[in-house]
Amino acid sequence: MFCVEEDCLTPILSDARPYRQVPKHMWFKSRVHLPTAFCERRQMSGSSSTPSEPMSPKMAFFFSRIFPIVFITIGAGIALVGIRGLLRAKASMDWPSAPGRVLEASVVSHRSRRNAGSRTIYHAEILYAFTVDGTPFSGNRVAYGDYGSSNPSHARQVVTRYPKGTIVTVYYMPGNPNECLLEPGIRGQSFLLPGFGFIFFAVGSLIAIFLPKAINKQRTSEPDDGQLSSEHAPLEKRPS
């Protein structure tokens, strides 16, 4: 049994039998009979013309439904926390204040492990104490949106601004002095958390919209078994 493929260019053409007598230097340009087993080996070796195997229904359901939901949920949670911080940062400009003192000021580091390895994260640890109506309170927030970084320069700058023993002005939420900070108002770093949240949410939404379409397109574009068998059916030998 034989099959015909134009791109089956192979060094075994010496064993091939052309349809008609042509010069040997034209064999590569002619359509030749090649053994079916050889053509099957070419297809199994990953020829670009061979369609990829379809994704299983379980994998398709996971990547088109579960995977984007995880992104959307995480993004929505981070965005909500960030938006709440932005609202409180704006409201903190009108909060009452009380004098306080810095008790501790240091650069704290910890190791963050990831798949590619680990890195050191630095952040400023500022502990201060203050009193409201005779009741002592303490806090460690400098501003909304405080963040750590692999570069210790930012943490060192914060520690330099608030060395141990410094008298500071502490702003606290009315009715809840435990919610307090040293630098009220919205700052650039306050947008980091909601920004990351919106990015995760947008990525998850795009995956949920476009990935199912891509999977359905792949399924509809794949030929069925009958079409494949007709394409690879043996060609009848022409009468001489």
Describe it.
The chain is 38% helix and 25% strand. The model is unreliable at 1-16 and 27-35 (pLDDT under 50). It is elongated and about 75 Å long. It has 240 residues and is an alpha+beta fold. The protein folds into 3 domains: 1-40, no CATH class; 56-95 and 187-224; 97-183, no CATH class. The two termini are 19 Å apart. Helix 2 (57-91) runs antiparallel to helix 4 (192-221). The chain has helices at 36-44, 57-91, 153-161, 192-221, 225-231; strands at residues 2-3, 17-18, 32-35, 97-114, 117-132, 135-139, 167-173, 176-181. It has a 5-stranded antiparallel beta sheet with strand order 6-5-4-7-8. Strands 1-3-2 form a 3-stranded antiparallel beta sheet.
Indicate the topology.
Blueprint: E1 2-3, E2 17-18, E3 32-35, H1 36-44, H2 57-91, E4 97-114, E5 117-132, E6 135-139, H3 153-161, E7 167-173, E8 176-181, H4 192-221, H5 225-231
Antiparallel strand pairs: 1-3, 2-3, 4-5, 4-7, 5-6, 7-8
**pLDDT < 50 runs, ≥5 residues:** 1-16, 27-35
Structural domain count: 3
Main sheet overview:
5 strands, antiparallel
Strand order of the largest sheet: 6-5-4-7-8
Give the proportion of residues in helices.
25-40%
**What value does the Rg take, in angstroms?**
34 Å
How far is the first residue's CA from the last residue's CA?
19 Å
* Count of DSSP H/I helices: 5
- Beta-strand percentage range: 25-35%
Which overall shape is indicated by the principal axes computed on the Cα atoms? elongated
Count of extended strands: 8
Order of helices and strands: EEEHHEEEHEEHH
Q: Report mean pLDDT, rounded to a whole number.
A: 75
Secondary structural class: alpha+beta
